[in-house]
């Protein structure tokens, strides 16, 4: 949840933050205090359990594997983010002389500590102008917490070989009310390659699409897009876009938004614009690909006690979206500028987006050529919304959408003609029941789909060819129940919520056009949580939560990994790892 002094916070305040939609604005103040009593006749919530702080955040995600090779850890930043809006940290990243490369892996560690009272904050790290990490922060307690986010950034090796500018942004405000300063450390560890741990194949060139300002992300108002004009190598063979997109203000929890006319009836509790969003990508104005955004919840979202100490899925380590633009390569090798555009379709408030291109080139030819042969992707999805009145003034809203599209193109290279086809189908349903003037809301969203990238290589002078395909499937179910039995002001309220969210990802490959699919990576990450938070006359009278996370899937080395965490009252109660 953003504070009202930031652009995102002001946007949220315009709609509903005077009350409590994502609830963080009033929930950052969870320590006991005194204030004017509630107006006469306002029922006080019954006293209940009050958490006495909470332990450091912990997640069931598998750790990044670290090769057993010679390595060098370089701390590239130690910085305190206090009154830091518009004041990012800037520095330089230089490859260590003792580990000059090649590297089998490069790992980024983002470590922090904070104490007092503070909002959750969006943060990002850029190296050589490319965003290498998108994250957000936990909300602290008075005693303070520490946490660490690690990420494999080996794919950015083309930028890491030479000194590059470093930017780290974490907009924060410290005053008499919001006292937490984020003390952050950023470390890069370079692991030397050897026979057992060779350097992996990476792109030949990494091309940032970030904005010219520092930091480089784009903060987009509803209806706006981020565009960057670039000149690409004339011997290009493949192009992949890595895109980041997170909603702000009312769109922090876009999945519980309702039609705008309904939100206007209860603006203190509901956000408008409806719940459907897409991350759309265009090349020279032509639709080229899209991704379904994950329903991220910040650490102050809904009820902050939901996420103590187990964070929501994607809360600390935001995964980017991969969009294969290879079918367009034949249109991009003419040496002229071309524009790549990212649009958060359906946005009803600010979205923060960014992107990076990963490019491979023909090592045996100065120029390639080709053409886009098919593109069935439309700019507007098929979105329908129906309403059904219920008992006691409740309204049930069902929103559905679906996509079924493909792009195809070829490029002539020294290895022959390479044809790439990208096909995707998606299915989306959001069922939302709103009652009691927006104080009670039950959301069940299902968002799933499949993307298949099929590549056929036909060597020159040969009639046949080799076909290889990679399939990526995803499912993002989320269920939310939110109750606000009482809200008077920031010192007198009663909030209750429960959430179940999941991210299921599977990557498979097959040789030929009809062979069996063979999975090589899988993620099934499920978080469930309940939380309550109430204040009476400025004093916290109820603050409690339960949480659990179950991760089943593979590690970055392909090994199976299974871990379950459970927590109560802000403390871990079990941690079970299975073989």
Radius of gyration: 24 Å
* Largest sheet: number of strands, sense, barrel closure: 12 strands, antiparallel
Given helix and strand content, the structural type is mainly beta
Helix content: under 10%
Strands, count? 29
The overall average pLDDT, rounded, is 91
Report the span from N to C terminus: 38 Å
Residue stretches low in confidence (pLDDT < 50, at least 5 long) are: 1-46
Tell me the β content.
over 45%
Structural commentary:
Residues 1-46 have low confidence and may be disordered. The longest helix is centred in the first third of the chain and has 9 residues, at 7-15. The protein has helices at residues 7-15, 24-27, 157-160, 260-265, 329-332; strands at 71-81, 89-93, 103-114, 122-127, 130-136, 145-152, 164-170, 182-192, 205-208, 218-220, 226-230, 236-247, 278-283, 286-291, 321-324, 338-345, 351-361, 369-375, 382-389, 395-413, 416-435, 440-458, 466-475, 478-489, 492-511, 518-536, 539-554, 560-568, 571-578. The chain contains 5 helices and 29 strands. The protein has 2 domains: 52-199, Jelly Rolls; 203-578, no CATH class. Strands 18, 19, 20, 21, 22, 23, 24, 25, 26, 27, 28 and 29 form a 12-stranded antiparallel beta sheet that branches. Strands 9, 10, 12, 15 and 17 form a 5-stranded antiparallel beta sheet that branches. The protein is mainly β and 579 residues long. The radius of gyration is 24 Å and the shape is globular. The two termini are 38 Å apart.
């Amino acid at each position: 949840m953003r504070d009202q002094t930031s652009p995102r916070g002001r946007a949220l305040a315009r709609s509903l933050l005077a009350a409590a939609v994502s609830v963080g604005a009033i929930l950052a103040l969870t320590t006991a205090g005194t204030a004017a009593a509630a107006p006469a006749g306002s029922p006080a919530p019954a006293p209940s359990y009050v958490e006495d702080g909470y332990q450091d955040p912990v997640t069931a995600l598998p750790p990044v594997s670290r090769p057993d090779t010679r390595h060098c850890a370089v701390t590239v930043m130690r910085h305190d983010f206090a009154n830091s809006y518009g004041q990012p940290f800037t520095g330089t990243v230089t490859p260590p002389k003792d580990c000059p490369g090649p590297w089998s892996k490069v790992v980024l560690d983002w470590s922090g500590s904070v104490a007092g009272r503070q909002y959750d904050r969006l943060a990002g790290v850029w190296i050589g102008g490319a965003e290498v990490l998108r994250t957000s922060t936990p909300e602290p307690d008075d005693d303070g917490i520490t946490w660490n986010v690690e990420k494999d950034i080996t794919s950015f090796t083309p930028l890491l070989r030479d000194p590059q500018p470093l930017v780290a942004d974490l907009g924060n405000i410290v005053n008499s009310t919001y006292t937490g300063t984020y003390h952050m450390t950023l470390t890069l560890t370079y692991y030397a390659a050897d026979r057992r741990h060779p350097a992996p194949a990476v792109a030949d060139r990494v091309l940032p699409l970030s904005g010219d300002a520092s930091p480089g992300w784009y903060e987009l108002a509803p209806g706006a897009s981020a565009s960057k004009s670039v000149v690409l190598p004339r011997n290009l063979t493949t192009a992949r876009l890595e895109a980041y997109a997170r909603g702000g203000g009312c769109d922090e929890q876009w999945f519980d938004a309702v039609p705008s006319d309904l939100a206007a009836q209860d603006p203190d509790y509901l956000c408008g614009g409806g719940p459907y969003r897409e991350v759309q990508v265009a090349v020279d104005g032509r639709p080229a690909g899209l991704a379904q955004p994950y329903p991220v919840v910040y650490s102050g979202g809904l009820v902050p006690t939901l996420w103590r100490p187990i964070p929501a899925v994607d809360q600390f380590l935001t995964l980017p979206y991969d969009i294969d633009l290879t079918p367009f390569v034949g249109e991009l090798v003419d040496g002229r500028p071309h524009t790549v555009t990212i649009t958060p379709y359906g946005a009803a408030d600010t979205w923060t987006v960014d992107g990076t291109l990963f490019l491979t080139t023909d090592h045996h030819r100065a120029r390639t050529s080709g053409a886009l042969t098919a593109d069935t992707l439309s700019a507007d999805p098929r979105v329908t919304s129906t309403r059904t009145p219920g008992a006691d003034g409740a309204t049930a809203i069902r929103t559905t959408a679906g996509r079924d599209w493909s792009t195809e193109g070829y490029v002539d290279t020294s290895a022959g003609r390479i044809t790439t086809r990208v096909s995707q189908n998606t299915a989306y349903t959001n069922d939302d029941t709103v009652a009691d003037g927006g104080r009670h809301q039950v959301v069940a969203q299902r968002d799933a789909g499949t993307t298949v990238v099929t590549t056929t290589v036909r060597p020159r002078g040969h009639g046949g060819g080799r076909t290889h395909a990679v399939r990526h499937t995803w499912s993002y179910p989320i269920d939310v129940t939110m109750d606000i039995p009482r809200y008077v002001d920031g010192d007198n309220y009663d909030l209750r919520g429960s959430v179940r969210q999941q991210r299921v990802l599977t990557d498979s490959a097959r040789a030929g056009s009809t062979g069996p699919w063979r999975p090589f990576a899988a993620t099934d990450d499920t978080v469930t949580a309940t939380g309550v938070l109430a204040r009476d006359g400025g004093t916290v009278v109820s603050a409690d939560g339960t949480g659990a996370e179950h991760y089943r899937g593979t590690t970055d080395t392909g090994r199976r990994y299974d871990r379950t965490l459970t927590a109560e009252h802000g403390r871990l109660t079990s941690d079970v790892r299975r073989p």
